[in-house]
Amino acid sequence: MTYTEQPLLVTTVGEDRTIVLPDSVPNGATIGIVVLSGAPKRKLTRKARFKAALAEIEAAIIHSQREPIALPSDAELNALIERARKEPRLA
Description:
The chain is elongated. The mean pLDDT is 80. The longest helix is centred in the middle third of the chain and has 26 residues, at 41-66. By secondary structure, the protein is mainly α. The chain has a domain at 41-84. It starts with 40 loop residues before the first helix and ends in a 5-residue tail after the last helix. It contains 2 helices and no strands.
């Protein structure tokens, strides 16, 4: 087996899961891929959404301690759940 030294190329995986390489890499070349970052954007977005939801929950708890909130009926809660299931998911 012969080893030929090659330059290190660093790129980012696109939203469509493609990797763009320079023209100096020929078609059909064998390449190695090493993931350098452990936090893709979708996970950061998910964490950000979780933090925002948690802040809303905490604000609702504080508000309900000052002014008790009327609980929804079972029918209202079921309607909210159905509406949430029908909304399109982002990412």
